[in-house]
């Protein structure tokens, strides 16, 4: 179903940009969308093909630059997860030839070569409130005795370009850009998940929603300026204790800066609750975005969640340090896990709709195409986003159709 909201008529496409600018100003929506590399566009196409029909399996690195969780899953099931997730948590200590070197992307190159998808998050460490050299933290806090483990770093300083905090943030952003550019040079796209769980307010970047949103946009624009366009941007919903889930959207930077919305779920035993409280919530608040289970702890198996209607784009149990920190340990040879036992993984892989790395490789080899049962009908008319990008399968949102600004409020209808 569509509703006409005004009658801005475009007589020819040469006048489109001028009319579009007027529409964007009227709607208060920024007139720029991410320009993505060819590799990132292909990843977006793959995600679109999977979305709603299948789900991608994922594992989290055991703290930093490794695939030990993926190795553990493979050792016990014979299957590799589709996505390997990494964390730039140790950025302050990263150095060439050091115990951690994020500029060495050989592990990620090999994962990509085998058909796997790369995801990277960032527990952003800044100087701890103790002020001691070499002490960094990402948790915000004032607890006595935790001066080395917590920080009072002020995210609102992103508005003050003369502040030392601003300079440090930009310095780190540029450093991360260098790592991501190395991946771009190798044709590797990245599911990029920065500033996660901001609405929970336990991390320094979440202490102020306006500051956090500005930091996200600043990072986005700086990456674009530096040519880091191989990213699919992933935002994670979170809300503080006692706050409704909707409160977390105060930390949402805007549709034009986000490709995927996710949620982190721990210790929820009911699949129907996960569907209604989490999945349906994200679908309602972000109807034009992909929806993913970006982290999970102890949750129902994927078969139960899928049957309940929680059709995540991907799912990722968090790591268990005691199990996977040492691939040569006795613990690594066992099948128990703090978040997802091997029995949980075997159940997941028993379903055809749960995709592995081999499945992704086969899809990429055969070529990406629209799913046969795509409910988002392809429309014949010229349909454009407010920023001027043509779309074939519009979902809910505001579009320009035949020069008119139109609201589409049903994802399965065509105009």
TrEMBL record:
Domain of life: Bacteria
Single biological process term from Gene Ontology: substituted mannan metabolic process
Molecular function as annotated in GO: mannan endo-1,4-beta-mannosidase activity
Pfam family, one: Glyco_hydro_26
Keyword annotations: Glycosidase, Hydrolase
Classification via SUPFAM superfamilies: (Trans)glycosidases (SSF51445)
Active site (catalytic residues): 197 (proton donor), 295 (nucleophile)
GH26 domain: residues covered: 38-358
PROSITE patterns xref list: GH26 (PS51764)
Family: Belongs to the glycosyl hydrolase 26 family.
PANTHER family in UniProt: GH26 DOMAIN-CONTAINING PROTEIN-RELATED, MANNAN ENDO-1,4-BETA-MANNOSIDASE E-RELATED
Protein name from the UniProt record: Beta-mannosidase
Source taxonomy: Bacteria, Pseudomonadati, Bacteroidota, Bacteroidia, Bacteroidales
């Amino acid at each position: 179903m569509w509703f006409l909201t005004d009658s801005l008529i475009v007589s020819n496409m040469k006048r489109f940009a001028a009319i579009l600018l007027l529409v964007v100003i009227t709607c208060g929506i920024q007139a720029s969308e991410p320009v993505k590399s060819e590799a990132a566009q292909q990843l977006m196409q793959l995600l679109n093909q999977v979305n709603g029909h299948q789900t991608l399996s994922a594992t989290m690195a055991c703290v930093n630059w490794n695939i030990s969780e993926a190795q553990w899953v493979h050792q016990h099931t014979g299957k590799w997860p589709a996505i390997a997730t990494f964390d730039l948590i140790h950025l302050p200590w990263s150095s060439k030839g050091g115990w951690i070197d994020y500029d060495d992307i050989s592990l990620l190159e090999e994962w990509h070569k085998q058909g796997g998808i790369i995801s990277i998050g960032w527990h952003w460490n800044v100087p701890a409130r103790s002020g001691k050299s070499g002490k960094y933290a990402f948790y915000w806090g004032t607890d006595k005795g935790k001066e080395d483990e917590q920080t009072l770093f002020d995210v609102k300083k992103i508005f003050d370009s003369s502040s030392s905090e601003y300079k440090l943030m930009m310095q780190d952003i540029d450093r991360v850009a260098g790592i991501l550019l190395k991946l771009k040079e190798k044709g590797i796209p990245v599911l990029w998940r920065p500033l996660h769980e901001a609405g929970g307010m336990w991390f320094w970047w979440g202490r102020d929603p306006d500051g956090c949103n500005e930091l996200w946009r600043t990072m986005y624009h700086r990456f674009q300026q530096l040519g880091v366009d191989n990213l699919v941007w992933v935002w994670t919903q979170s809300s503080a204790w006692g706050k409704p889930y909707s409160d977390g959207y105060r930390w949402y930077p805007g549709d034009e800066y986000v490709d995927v919305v996710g949620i982190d779920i721990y210790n929820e035993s009911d699949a129907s609750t996960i569907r209604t409280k989490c999945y349906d919530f994200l679908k309602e608040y972000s109807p034009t975005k992909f929806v993913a289970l970006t982290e999970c702890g102890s949750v129902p198996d994927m078969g139960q969640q899928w049957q309940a209607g929680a059709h995540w784009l991907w799912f990722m149990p968090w790591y268990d340090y005691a199990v996977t920190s040492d691939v040569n340990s006795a613990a690594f040879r066992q099948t128990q896990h703090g978040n997802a036992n091997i029995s949980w993984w075997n159940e997941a892989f028993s379903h055809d709709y749960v995709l592995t790395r081999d499945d992704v490789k086969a899809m990429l080899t055969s070529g990406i195409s629209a799913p046969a049962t795509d409910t988002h009908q392809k429309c014949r008319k010229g349909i454009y986003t407010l920023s001027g990008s043509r779309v074939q399968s519009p979902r809910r949102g505001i579009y320009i159709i035949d020069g008119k600004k139109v609201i589409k409020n049903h994802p399965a209808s065509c105009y």
